[in-house]
Amino acid sequence: RLEIILLLAPIVCQAANILMHLAMIVRSDTLKICIQHMEIDWRRIDNSTEHDIMTKHVRYSHNLTIACITVMYTGALSYSLIMPLMAGNTINEFNETLRPRPFPGTDIFFDVQANVVYEIVFTINFISAIFHYTVITAVCNLAIVLVSHTCGQIQVVIWNLENLVNELTKNDKDPDVIMKRIGFIIRRHDRLLKFSANIEKALKEIFLMEVVSSTLIMCFIEYDIIIALEQSITNRLEMTTYVLLLSSFAFNLFLYCQFGEVLMEQCQQVGKVAYMIDWYKLPSKSQLALIMIINMGEYPCKLTAGGMMDLSIANFASITKTSLAYFNMMRTMG
Questions:
Q1: Which of 99-108, 196-205, 216-225 has the lowest mean pLDDT?
Q2: What is the rounded end-to-end Cα distance, in angstroms, of the chain?
Q3: Which listed residue, of 92, 100, 157, 196, carries a Cα 20 to 30 Å from 125's Cα?
Q4: Which residue ranges traverse the bilayer (predicted)?
C-alpha cells in the first residue's frame, strides 16, 4: 500500500500536467485575444504616468515569475535529480546492491536495476519532470502577466478618476468635454472588465485542475512525510525534498488564490474611488454618469476554479484544510 501511495502523487502530477497542457491548447484562441488586448493597451498609452503605472506592474510580474520558477524548479530538481543521486546504494536480503529508484513504481513493470534500463528510466524521468514543471511555471507566468496587466489597467482608470475633477474644473471645461472625458474612462473600465472576463474564460479549467491536483498532491506528500517519520527515517535529504515539494505546490496554489483576491479588491477599488472623488463639483449629468462605475464596483471580476469556486485567500485556507482532511482519512485507513 505504501508503494501505491508513493506512486499516486507523481501520477496525479503528470496527469494534471497533461490536462493543463490540453486546456491551454483548447483555449488558445481566447489566450490569443488576451495577448492582442494587452498589445493594444500598450499602444494606447499616451502619457508618462500611465506608462510608469504599467511598467511598475510589469516589473512586479517579472519578479513574481522568477520567484515561482525558483521555488518550483528547486522542488523538481531536489526530487528528480538530487535525491536519487545522493540517496546511495542499499543491499537487500539477497546481498544484492540496489541503486535508488529514479521513480516510484518503476520496478513494478521491469527491472530498473539493470545497467542500461536504469540510466534510460532515470533520464526519461528527469526530462519528464523538467517538462512538467516547465508547463506549471509557464501557466503560472501566464496568469501573473494577465492579472498584473489587468491590475495595471485598473490603476490607470483609478488615476484618471482621481484627476478627473481637478483637471476639468481647473481648466473650466464645458460640460460636453467633461462628458467625453468620463465616457473615455467608462470605456476603459468596460474594456478591462471584458479583458478580465476573457482571463477567467481562458484559465478557469487550468485553475480547477491546479486546485484539485495540488490538494491531492499535498495530501500525498504529507502522508509520505509522516510515514518517513514513523519509520524512523533520518535521511535529512529525503525529508528536505518532501518539504520543498510541499512548499512549492502550496506556494503555486497560493499565488493563484492571491491573484483572484487582488483582482477582486482592485475592481472594487474603482467603485470606491469613483465615490470618493469630488464628484459634486461636476455638472449634474456628469455626476449621473459616475453611477455606472460605482455600480460596476459592486460586481468585481473574479477568478474561479472551473466556475465552481472563487480563488481567494479564504478559499486557499479551505483547500489546505481539505488536504489535511484527506491526509487524516488516509492515515485512518492505513
A1: 99-108
A2: 8
A3: 92
A4: 6-26, 64-87, 120-147, 206-229, 241-259
Q: Tell me what the mean pLDDT of segment 265-292 comes to.
A: 81
CA atoms within 13 A on the CB side of 92: 7
If one counts the domains in the chain, the total is 1
* Distance (Å, whole) CA 262 – CA 259: 5
pTM, entire model:
0.85
Interatomic CA distance for residues 208 and 319, integer angstroms: 12
Gap between the Cα atoms of 189 and 185, Å rounded: 6
Mean of pLDDT values over 108-127: 74
Cell for 319? 483547500
- How far from 180 is each of 272, 274, 296, CA to CA, in Å? 21, 16, 19
266 in Cβ contact with 170 (< 8 Å): no
Alpha helices in the chain (DSSP H): 2-26, 28-43, 48-77, 83-87, 115-170, 175-230, 236-276, 284-296, 313-333
